[in-house]
Amino acid sequence: MNEAEFSFTLNDRPVTLNTRASAMLVDVLRNDYGLFGCRIGCDQAVCGACTVLVDGTPMAACSTFIFEIEGREVTTIEATGQTPDPVQQAFIDARGFQCGYCTGGMILLTRSLLARHPDPDDDTIRAWLGANVCRCTGYSSIIDAVKAAGRLLRQEAVR
Amino acid sequence: MSVETLADPETKIIPLDGLAKVTGSIRYAFDASLPGMLHAKLLRSPHAHARIRRIDATKALAVPGVVCVVTGEDAARLPDPHHGFYVRDQPLIAMGKVRYVGDPVAAVVARDEKIALAALSLISVDYEPLQPVPTIDDALAPGAPLLFDEPHSGPALSVGKGSWSINEPSPNVLYEYGYARGDIDAMMAKASHVSHDSFIVSRINHFHLEPYAIIARTEGERVELWTCNQDPFMIRGDLSRIFGKPVNSICLHSAPIGGGFGGKSYCKLEPLVVLMAMKAGAPVRLALTLDESILTLTKHAGVLTLTSGIDDDGRFLARRSELRMDGGAYADASVMVAVKAGYRIPGPYRWDALFSRASIIRTTAVPAGSFRGFGGTQVSYASECQIDLMARRTGLDPYELRVRNLLEVGEEFAPGDSGMDSDLRQGLDEVCHRIGYHQRKRQKGRGIGLAIGLKDGGGTGNHAQAIVTVSEKGDVTVSAGTTEIGQGAATVLCRIATRTLGLPLSKAHYASIDTDRTPLNNGTHVSCGTVVTGSAVQRAAEDVRAQLLAFAAEQLQCTPEELKLDGWAVIKGNESFSLETMIRSWFGGVGYSFIGRGGMKVPYDPASPMRARNLFWMPCWSTAEVEVDEDTGHVRVLRLVVGADAGHAIDPVSCEGQVAGAALQAYAQAMFEELRYRDDAVPDNINPRSYRVPVAGDLPAQFECFVEEHGYGPGPFGAKGIGESGMLGIAAAIANAIEDAIGARVYQMPFTPERVLAALDQLHSQKQAEPAS
Amino acid sequence: MDSIEQTTPLIGLRGRQRIPDFSVAYPQSIADAVHLREEARAVWMAGGIDLVDDLKQGRAVERVVPLSRLQDLKEIALTPDGTLRIGALVTYRELSEHPLVLDKAPDLAKLIGAVANIRIRSKATVGGSIMSRNGAYDLMPALLALGATLIFHGEDGDGASTARVAASQLTDDEQRLLQAVEIPASASQLKVDRTLRPSACAFLGFATKGSNGALLRLATSCTHPRPAVAEVTVDAASASDLAANAALWAEQLVASLPMPMSDTIASADYRRRVLIVLAKRLIASATSSSIADTDHE
Predict the structure, then answer these.
(1) Which residues of C touch A63 (CB under 8 A)?
(2) Of B635, B634, B654, nearest to B644 (Cα)?
(3) Which CATH code for domain A84-158?
(4) Does 3.10.20.30 match the CATH number of domain A3-79?
(5) Hey, is the C-beta of B207 within 8 angstroms of any chain A C-beta?
(6) Neighbours of C252 (CB within 10 A)
(7) Which residues of B touch A141 (CB under 8 A)?
(8) Cβ of B676 and C264 within 8 Å?
């Protein structure tokens, strides 16, 4: 058995886990930490339903090994708990979801986008959103949600 | 027919499950688990067509952690181990034969998925390969190999006046639906112009992000399932029949569903998982990969041949339709798709004579079944394309030709059926206005196309029941069987109840669905949730209202007519009385529930072609502007405008979202999305990397969706269903725009650059062949 | 690529649960990485995108040797003669955003910054992409068009030597560790048209040779199982007005390529035909100083 200890930060909490090096991050998050907001969709790093942020960068947890996470910061959709942050609130306001399966990934992707581009234009938004598939919405309401989130965050920043 | 509706006092609908979705706390069937649960994996046929001589699972069973293996031998012992809508030809698991690459052959149940997979590869299956039947033409050729050696017993679906319905009319033809009225030969002879064209529609997959996931558990005589199926009661019925158990010994729990689009409708792998749980003596979970989902169900591809005659004034006289749809290896819901395709082919127009035949042809491919739009997408494409062709061939403007023939509000779609309940002209004018159709200037390589797709909605003779429960504090629980697949049913049904009761939406909760407790429902499809289940919910809420007023009247010693409900209080004269106070005072104890019941049923009517009048109509007004690169055939859709009619939009944002989501699915199918098969009936692109679905960057530069409220819906507050509308007109609008741009017609989806270039080549060689005028 | 020993093919069952229980060994140096991989069924891992996909399809691997901690492989630098040297473990995202690349090879930066999506670009590496030999990927065709050189780890014991291989000479059985890619200073322009993806993408490299004229290189993706490239030398006179003979050069270049493949996406004839169209357009625009990349993805 190729087990080892892996230490990383999970939603701002330092954690250590003993597991197989070949374990996939999505299975670790779901089965070892009960974080089901990281969803399994395509299992081929195409759909982005399993998106988490690793050191602020969106990554497909279905295709990232636990050994790649050693010493890094992982953020899942559960990081903000049950109180919606501005991005989540924007998604509610703009109805940037329907079935909700892609939503956690979309929100994390949006946070990463807005951290990099606080006032993104349409082309930038469409390019970034290309990392995540939504089969329900047709993307228009998600694009609206991203813009609304940007506005909310910029407002917060000036306060 | 117009219904006066009061505006909703709540100006913004906040979806009830929004918080759960944005925080990731919502749970889908895929997330469910039970103590002691085992895991299953399926071995699937690598052959498109083969007999199974022998399955040897000895080595698999010897793997530590493997609990059992299930094959067709186990299924054969069941009372009725097949499923399918009216033609029950699909076995739980292959029995004697496999009929498509991906057909499940054996199932391993093990302690975990890894062990199950390792064991699968140790099962050896001795196949006798047979000649595949890759296409419709192959299936219909004389001497073609037969997918089934014998026909299946059972009656054909009942239809009404003018329609006919035949199971398995010939080998390799699963089903035939037909409709005829008027004197087709005479009307065709009267026509001053006749067009004859064939259109080819492609095969796509639903690609719902949540994979199929089913858990089954048996406890003595009881069978319990957790599924992502859109039709829990239908499946309960199937399980009852297959296992020979009464329906009240079977309970299905339906979690919120991570996308369905028809792919999670009708019976799928549920009976197989039950069989596995029975054999294993423990709960069993089966979760498919997305690749396996693609190998489970597709949308019908096919060839649609239309012969239509119009007169000098551009009036539609007669249409003969021969619709050959590729049903794949098993029936699934193909019978219903054929019926709907055959019936909807006339579109939103007036015709004097019709002869429509829709056949489902069996091929050794993934079974085709219900897909949002359900036959309506395919036929809207063919019909709307041919209308443009006829316009161009007779020198009429495509807008004008349509306007001359559109059904008026109230005009019957067919004799014996309900009348049109949308102002078709208004919607057409709206899309024309938005894209600037009448002001457009001719520009090389650019074109604009119009289309009006149409389907009926609400189902045939459909019915639903609902229970609305209200606590002493005015907390509302709505219990009904429409599953939440992302269409926003939970919120809309709760809004119907709370509007009826005069309470805010936030007071309501949509009860989780299980077939023991939830009132029966025919299933979440044909856009029936808002109207059919919604009407049942509204009546249940009205029942509660009446009970509340009766109760308050007794407490206040007056008649209910003297009282008015006002929030969670009643007003008598000038005084307001708290309902909570009265209820607590009378009942005491831990509280009280007012339980309201409601139901609705659309009666059958043999005088109607579908055997029941259609509940409502769903037009899809579409227009597209394209730019075509005539050297490469590349088509860029610059603008896409899509509109639908909600009757009355209970949740306008949700309605728009449904139109947009459907429109993008249709757009993708028109432009690039396809499950491609090679000549040998082997699918080429079943994994997510190769099966391309649209992402945000694929959107047309300008993509506009709008929802009209014509007010004629039969549902609560004048509502109609809208979930499927957006699928219907897009492909034709784009194909028509391409023809407008380059003068050449692409008949086959998707409109790849190669096909567009081939159409241009053909046009150029035709022009060269023609003598100069 | 190893194929798994199986009695029966597992149709549709690609997935995480098929990944074998492998060990992970981080190398201390490039030479160490080579040594660790010499054992049977050991593989190097760059970004891991293709490796993970292979593992999910049942590839048997006993040890993974991640290269991500070898700083030497992550550098981007300019050599004294103006050659741009890009380490094999540089990600697409880093490549597209690095000041040196933006300065010296802006067309390449722009191309790679538009490929796939932000998530893939944050993980995909230059080396991983090249060594995948995937005919649908866009980095290798760009490098072929630019006349790039691949720098492999040499075969001597102390790991100091390197082997230089022209990108166009990369063989299917190359076993050495790719360390870096070099783009010559003379490779001034890269024009790309990816609008016809997945049928055909064209990459035109235009390198001036002073009084000797210019070198046109046409590479493609999505048209052949492996990225293909053809080149033609243009005399100095023609080099100053490429638009005049664009069609001629395009036909010549495409004729020098192997026949494209036919598959369910497009036919060989169509691919060949549009490659000529795309190449002609790229050649005609090559002398313009503003870069008009017609990519829509």
Answers:
(1) 48-49, 52-53
(2) B654
(3) 1.10.150.120
(4) yes
(5) yes
(6) 17
(7) 653, 656-657, 660
(8) yes
Which domains, and CATH codes, for chain B? 30-131+212-287 (3.90.1170.50), 301-403+414-459+607-768 (3.30.365.10), 462-601 (3.30.365.10)
Convert the pLDDT of each residue in B385-395 to its tens digit.
Answer: 999 999 999 99
- Smallest Cβ–Cβ distance between B289 and the set C12, C263, C277 belongs to C12
Maximal C-alpha separation, chain C: 64
**Residue B560 tokens, joined:** 């209910």
C262 touches chain B (CB under 8 A): no
Instruction: Set out the domains of chain C in order of their start, with CATH numbers.
Output: 16-66 (3.30.43), 71-183 (3.30.465.10), 188-285 (3.30.390.50)
pLDDT value at position C155? 73
Indicate the helix (H) or strand (E) that contains B769.
Answer: helix B753-769
The per-type count for chain B, helices as H runs and strands as E runs, is: 19, 30
SS (H, E, C) B509-558: EECCEECCCCCCECCCCCCCHHHHHHHHHHHHHHHHHHHHHHHHHHHHCC
Tell me the C-alpha distance between B115 and B34, whole Å: 19
Contacts of B209 (CB under 8 A, 6+ apart): A39, A41, A42, A47, A49, A99, A101, A102, A133, A134, A135, B258, B259
Cα separation of C255 and C276, whole Å?
Answer: 9
For B750, residues 6+ apart whose C-beta sits below 8 A from its C-beta are B202, B669, B670, B671, B672, B673, B674
Q: Is the ipTM of this complex over 0.90?
A: yes
CA B4 to CA B133: how far, in whole Å? 55
Query: pLDDT, tens digit, for every residue of B304-338?
Result: 999 999 999 999 999 999 999 999 999 999 999 99
- Counting every residue, how long is chain B? 773
Is residue C188's pLDDT more than 90? Answer: no
- How is residue B157 annotated by DSSP? P
The structure tokens listed for B639 are 């603008």
**Which chains, if any, share at least 3 CB pairs under 8 A with chain C?**
A, B
Amino acid identity for residue A17 in this structure: L
- The Cα angle at residue B267 between residues B261 and B270, in degrees rounded to 5: 110
Q: Is B122 helix (H, G, I), strand (E, B) or coil?
A: coil
Q: Which among B361, B364, B377 has a CA at the least distance from the CA of B324?
A: B361
CA distance A1 to chain B (A): 15
Whether the CA torsion B734, B740, B742, B746 is positive or negative: it is positive
**pLDDT confidence band for C2 (50 / 70 / 90):** very low
Which of B289, B654, B656 lies at the smallest CB-CB distance from A43?
B289
**What is the spatial distance between Cα B627 and Cα B769, in angstroms, rounded to a whole number?**
27
Cβ pair B643, B659 in contact under 8 A: yes
Q: Which residues contact C248 (CB under 8 A, 6 or more apart)?
A: none
| Residue of chain B minimizing CA distance to A23 | B114
Structure tokens at B130: 């047979």
In degrees and rounded to multiples of 5, residue B529 shows phi and psi of -55, -50
Residues of chain B with Cβ-Cβ distance to A127 below 8 Å are 697
